[in-house]
Write a structure and sequence with these properties.
alpha+beta, five-stranded antiparallel beta sheet, single chain, 3 domains
Length: 531
C-alpha cells in the first residue's frame, strides 16, 4: 500500500512539473528513453507541443470499458489526416478487449492499415520520425513507441525543367521531393544494381540526402572519398544542394565547378551509367554528380537524342562560342590599341571615324559597357518576368543607342560587347565563370596587348590542367589517360557515342569489376585523391 501511494504521488508530481514547469525536457538527448508510464510520455509530448501549435496529441481510450489508454503524436501539415482517422484511429477503437500487453502485438500483426511500422525506444528517434511526417503511437505500459508511416505533404508536380530546355527528349524535371526524385531515377534505370544510400546533414535542419550509383560502375576510391567529405560536413543548416556543392568541391576558389548539377532525370541517369555518383538532396530540384569533367559543360541534354554528326558539330560550336565570348573583347582592345597595323585600312578608317569625339580609351569603353550589360542582365533575371523583359528592352535598345548618340562609346564597342554576351550563353554552365574570365582577359590585354592575352590563356590552361574532381583530372577527355569505350554494347540503353571518351578513372566496369577498354590483367592508372 505504501509503495502504491508513493508511486501515485511521484506520477502526480511529474505531471505537475511537466505541465507547469518553465523548462521543457531535452527531447534530443540521446539517452532519454520512452517510459512505460503513459502519463510521463504524455507530459513529454505536451512539452513538445509547447514548441509549436502544429503538434497534435490525440488521446484514446480503448476497449468496451475504456480502461486502456493510448495517444497519437503527429505534426499537422506533414501527415495524411484522413489516413490517420480511417486506418489508425478507427481500427483501434474497434478493438473490443485490448489488454496492456497484447495491444502492441495486435498492432504489429495487422489491425492497422499502414504501409510500414517500426519501434522507437528513444525520444530522439521518435522526434526525428515525427518531424518528417510519421505518427507515433504510445500505449500505456509499453516502454516504446510504435512509429506509423503516414507522411503526406504538398509538393510541386513534375514539370519541364526551366534551366535545361530541350526540343527533343523527355520533358520531366526533378522536384523538391526526394522520394519523387528517386522514383524518376528508378523509372529510367530499372536495374537491381541501382543503389540508394540515405544520409542526414545539418544539425538543425536534419536534411535527408541520398547517394545514387550503379553497383560496380563507379571507382571505389571515388565513393569512399565522397562519403568521407559528406560525413565531414557539420553545418547547422543544409537547405539546398548548392550548399553541399560548395562544401565537397575540390577547389573552392576556382571559377570552374568540379561538381556537376542537373535538373533533368535523363541526364542524371546517363551520368550514373557512365560511372558517376549522384547526390540527391531533400528540398532541391538540382541533383549533383561527381566526378565532373570540363567537357561536360559543353554537352546538351539533347545530344543523346539527335544524330551523332549534328551533336558533335553543335558541341564543337559551343566550345568555339565559349572561347569567342572570353577573347572577343580582348582581341578588339588589343587590335585597336596596340596592333592597329593588323586591321585593314578601310576598316581602321571607319573605326577611327566612329570613335571620333569619344572621351574614354577603348579599354575603358569596353569595361563600362560590359559592366552595364551585367547589371541589366542581373536585374532582368531577378525581377518578375514581365518587368524583367521590360528592363532587357530598355537596357539593350534605349541605353545602348543613347550611349552611341551621346558620343560616350563607339558603335563597334556595343557590337563587340553584345556578341561576347550572346556567345557566352552557348554554354549555359559556363555563363558565370565567363564574366570573371572576360574581365581578367581584358585587364591583361589592356596592359600589354596580345602578349597579355597569351599570358591569360596560358594561365587558364594551366589552371584547368591542375584541377581534379574527386581524384579524376578535370581535362580527362583531352589527356592520354582517356580511353574509348567499346563500340558494341547491346545491353546499353543509351547510344554508345554519347559516352565517347570516358576517362579511365570513371569508365564503366563489367560485372567482374574490370574497366571497359583496360587490360584485364593489368593495373589501372589513377591519381591520389585530393581534398
Amino acid at each position: 500500500m505504501l509503495q502504491r501511494l508513493l508511486g501515485t504521488f511521484s506520477r502526480r508530481a511529474k505531471r505537475t512539473h511537466l505541465g507547469h514547469g518553465s523548462s521543457a525536457p531535452d527531447l534530443e538527448s540521446p539517452g532519454r528513453k520512452v517510459s512505460s508510464c503513459l502519463d510521463a510520455n504524455l507530459g513529454t509530448a505536451q512539452a513538445l507541443r509547447g514548441r509549436g501549435e502544429d503538434v497534435v496529441i490525440r488521446q484514446l481510450r480503448l476497449g468496451k470499458d475504456q480502461r486502456l489508454r493510448a495517444f497519437l503524436l503527429f505534426v499537422d501539415g506533414l501527415v495524411n489526416k484522413d489516413m490517420i482517422a480511417r486506418d489508425i484511429i478507427d481500427p483501434l477503437l474497434r478493438v473490443t478487449n485490448p489488454s496492456m500487453g497484447k495491444l502492441s502485438d495486435l498492432v504489429r500483426h495487422g489491425i492497422l492499415a499502414v504501409p510500414s511500422l517500426k519501434e522507437a525506444t528513444i525520444w530522439s528517434q521518435v522526434l526525428a520520425e515525427v518531424l518528417i511526417g510519421e505518427t507515433a503511437l504510445f500505449i500505456d505500459g509499453e516502454p516504446h513507441a510504435l512509429v506509423l508511416e503516414t507522411r503526406s505533404w504538398q509538393t510541386r508536380a513534375v514539370e519541364a525543367p526551366n534551366t535545361e530546355v530541350t526540343i527533343r527528349g523527355p520533358q520531366e524535371g526533378f522536384t523538391e521531393s526526394l522520394r519523387v526524385n528517386t522514383s524518376l531515377l528508378r523509372r529510367r534505370i530499372r536495374n537491381a544494381d541501382l543503389r540508394l544510400e540515405a544520409m542526414v546533414l545539418g544539425r538543425r535542419t536534419g536534411t535527408k540526402v541520398c547517394l545514387a550509383y550503379i553497383e560496380k560502375l563507379p571507382e571505389d576510391r571515388v565513393l569512399q572519398e565522397l562519403r568521407r567529405r559528406l560525413e565531414r560536413i557539420d553545418p547547422a543548416a543544409v537547405l539546398e544542394s548548392g550548399q553541399i556543392e560548395k562544401l565537397i568541391e575540390d577547389c573552392s576558389w576556382s571559377p570552374f565547378s568540379t561538381v556537376g548539377a542537373t535538373e533533368r532525370p535523363d541526364v542524371a541517369a546517363l551520368r550514373l551509367l557512365q560511372g558517376r555518383v549522384a547526390i540527391l538532396c531533400e528540398g532541391s530540384p538540382f541533383v549533383l554528380t561527381v566526378p565532373h569533367l570540363f567537357m561536360e559543360m559543353f554537352q546538351s541534354a539533347e545530344d543523346p537524342y539527335i544524330r551523332r554528326i549534328h551533336a558533335v558539330t553543335l558541341r564543337c560550336g559551343r566550345f568555339v562560342a565559349w572561347l569567342a565570348s572570353l577573347l572577343s573583347l580582348s582581341f578588339y582592345v588589343a587590335l585597336e590599341t596596340f596592333h592597329q597595323e593588323m586591321i585593314p585600312r578601310p576598316l581602321i578608317i571607319t573605326m577611327m571615324a566612329a570613335r571620333e569625339g569619344t572621351p574614354f580609351p577603348v579599354a575603358v569603353e569596353v569595361l563600362l559597357m560590359g559592366a552595364a550589360y551585367e547589371i541589366v542582365r542581373e536585374a532582368g533575371s531577378r525581377l518578375p518576368r514581365p518587368v524583367g523583359q521590360a528592363i532587357s528592352i530598355v537596357g539593350t535598345l534605349i541605353i545602348g543607342d543613347a550611349a552611341v548618340k551621346a558620343g560616350l562609346v563607339a558603335a563597334q564597342v556595343i557590337i563587340v560587347v553584345a556578341f561576347s554576351a550572346v556567345a557566352s550563353f552557348a554554354a549555359p554552365a559556363l555563363t558565370q565563370p565567363s564574366v570573371l574570365l572576360r574581365l581578367l582577359a581584358l585587364i591583361f590585354t589592356a596592359i600589354i596587348g596580345f602578349y597579355g592575352t597569351a599570358i591569360f590563356f596560358a594561365g587558364l590552361l594551366v589552371h584547368l590542367a591542375s584541377l581534379r574532381s574527386f581524384g579524376v583530372p578535370y581535362l580527362s577527355t583531352f589527356v592520354p589517360t582517356a580511353v574509348e569505350t567499346p563500340r558494341t554494347m547491346p545491353s546499353e540503353p543509351l547510344p554508345v557515342w554519347s559516352i565517347l571518351t570516358c576517362p579511365e578513372e570513371t569508365a564503366p566496369r563489367d560485372p567482374a569489376g574490370n574497366r571497359a577498354g583496360t587490360d584485364r590483367g593489368g593495373s589501372e592508372n589513377g591519381g591520389n585523391t585530393t581534398t
